[in-house]
Amino acid sequence: KLPPRVKLVDVGPRDGLQNEKQAVPAEVKIGLVHRLQEAGLKEIEVTSFVSPKWVPQMADNAEVMHGLRRQAGVRYSVLTPNMKGFEAAIAAPREEWPDEIVVFGAASEAFSQKNINCSIAESIERFRPVAEAAREKGIYVRGAMSCTVGCPYEGEIAPERVGMLAKLMKDIGVQHVGVADTIGVGTPLKVRRALEATLAHYGIDDISGHFHDTYGQALSNTLASLELGVWQFDTSVGGLGGCPFAKGATGNVATEDVVYMLHGMGIETGIDLDKLIDAGVYINQALGREPNSRVSKAIRTK
Ligand code: HMG
Ligand code: MG
Predict the structure, then answer these.
(1) In angstroms, what is the span from residue 98 Cα to ligand 1's centroid?
(2) pLDDT tens across 95-130, in order?
């Protein structure tokens, strides 16, 4: 049975922009978050507190958090890979703290090394105090699990390895995990197996799907997840994005395309598709491109 309602987390300001070579002004990032909440998004992944040497685009994290005009009922999340990142995320006054932080690990050793410069086991030891400190302060702890179906360096990833990572996340107090197809190589049955391996450790309300659309499979993978009962997904307005440490990976599935599919299936999202399309046009104009969303294009040229 399909879920009657789906929650989408727009990761455009973070996952979407982190890979952009051209510096995007903080003001534009803030403008994007405002347009997303205006369109009805109830959770937005705003930025990441990572090394500015590794990801220069996110160096304005504190400025972006400071500039947000927060809307009641909207949750704002940020990536914090270690205590240094967590401390930076809560260095501001409390009203500028994120509602949720994200620790991010990988089911592949090689990707863990490339992305966060440590092994899977070491990453868990870095996340442990972050999860503890966040929960102590009432900040919700989400975990992202990269390369749950395929890795750019190791190839196919067995579901057992996803299950192992999910268990490690659970053991350190991570409250929700996202099952990510970082490089978009997954197909529905493989994605299903990765989700099932995660469901051995987390309940259906505590997992989400995070699908990049590199091979054009993300909508199919979303549908396969819905059929399992998964009702939370990360998507990116205008299909922005990619990971700088995952060669060849393109953006997340476009929020517009997922909203169109869900509404067409009678599944509620609370999102206004026209306003969402405008948000995608806004950020893409700033980047000098067209939104990478078939639905956006079709509706705008109708
Ligand atoms: P490291 O080099 O192992 O850390 O980096 P370190 O503790 O040895 O510190 C080295 C330097 O980094 C020091 O500075 C630290 O102060 C600094 P230096 O003394 O050389 O001047 N540093 C920091 N600076 C700011 N904020 C911090 C921080 N930590 C250390 N938090 C680290 C480890 C994780 C920080 C680094 O590897 C890094 O920043 N990596 C970037 C990871 C990243 O942002 N990846 C993209 C996001 S993940 C993703 O896109 C996947 C996802 O979408 C799901 C999916 O699709 O799969 C979530
Ligand atoms: Mg991603």
Answers:
(1) 18
(2) 999 999 999 999 999 999 999 999 999 999 999 999
Closest ligand 1 atom to Cα of 148: 57
Instruction: Count CA within 13 A, CB hemisphere, residue 59.
Output: 10
Of 277, 203, 268, 261, give the one whose Cα is nearest residue 35. Answer: 277
Q: Which atom of ligand 1 is nearest to the CA of 252?
A: 56
The complex scores an ipTM of: 0.98
Residue 153, classed as helix, strand or coil, is: coil
**Cα dist. 217→89, 187, 197, 198 in Å?**
34, 6, 20, 20
Contact 43, 75 (CB under 8 A): yes
117 pocket-lining for ligand 1 (C-beta < 6 Å): yes
pLDDT tens string 199-212: 999 999 999 999 99
- DSSP state, residue 167: H
The answer for residues whose C-beta is within 8 angstroms of residue 57's C-beta and 6 or more apart is: 17, 18, 19, 20, 23, 24
Closest CA to 25 of 66, 60, 77: 60
